[in-house]
Write a structure and sequence with these properties.
about 210 residues, about 65% helix, about 0% strand
Length: about 210
């Protein structure tokens, strides 16, 4: 189980990080549209299509990566008070009642939706540019498969937690500053010796700051 968890986490992370570069493409595309529209009075016919297709692709392909890092929103005002075994039992049940049926429906429905789009090489009807969008419909199926594979890994995590009483360690990743501050229970991580900031020990002691050159 641990090997499969590591495999699924690595696979989800690879796809998530690769498709994250789409944010830069989307930013450049939207930025170009703003400059062209408001400075040169020459709006592009493709910028809108580019923005919503790329945003949808990034959103879908990052789902499995977010799940592997336990980053999805959870109403945890009660959940977080429970013991790990209780959390794992609840999650295990919910995965089979809601997650897997939903993801399976997404894959099969997305397959029909994408296949129909590929048959007639669908283009966007939202702009005169006729931007091809059939290839983006395949993202629905790909994202569903990735989520299903990662869901199996999450089920294995639940089983291991029920056995051991502890959640398996998550893969290390970038942490939000707010979370770091909450875990350290201090603002010391923000204090530096740059000019204008005082060392915390000197502030606590009420002493005058020392000259850095002495």
């Amino acid at each position: 189980m641990l090997r499969y968890i590591a495999f699924a986490d690595e696979l989800s992370a690879w796809f998530g990080k690769v498709f994250a570069w789409g944010i830069l493409i989307m930013a450049f595309g939207v930025g170009y549209e703003v400059v062209a529209r408001y400075l040169f009075r020459a709006p592009t016919p493709w910028a809108f299509d580019l923005s919503y297709m790329l945003y949808g692709t990034i959103f879908m392909m990052a789902g499995a990566y977010t799940l592997s890092r336990d980053g999805h929103v959870r109403g945890d005002f009660i959940y977080r008070l429970w013991k790990p075994r209780t959390q794992a039992r609840l999650e295990l049940v919910l995965y089979f009642i809601f997650f897997f049926p939903g993801i399976t429906a997404l894959v099969f429905s997305g397959w029909k939706y994408a296949a129909r789009s590929w048959r007639y090489l669908e283009v966007s009807s939202n702009s005169p540019a006729g931007v091809p969008i059939f290839q983006f419909k395949a993202v629905i199926v790909a994202a569903g498969i990735l989520l299903f594979l990662q869901g199996v890994a999450q089920v294995f995590r639940c089983i291991l937690c029920i056995r051991t009483g502890e959640w398996p360690k998550q893969a290390e990743d970038v942490e939000e500053l707010e979370k770091v501050l909450l875990e350290t229970k201090s603002l010391d991580v923000l204090k530096t010796e740059d000019e204008g900031f005082l060392p915390s020990r000197e502030l606590d002691a009420g002493r005058e700051p020392r000259d850095r050159d002495t």
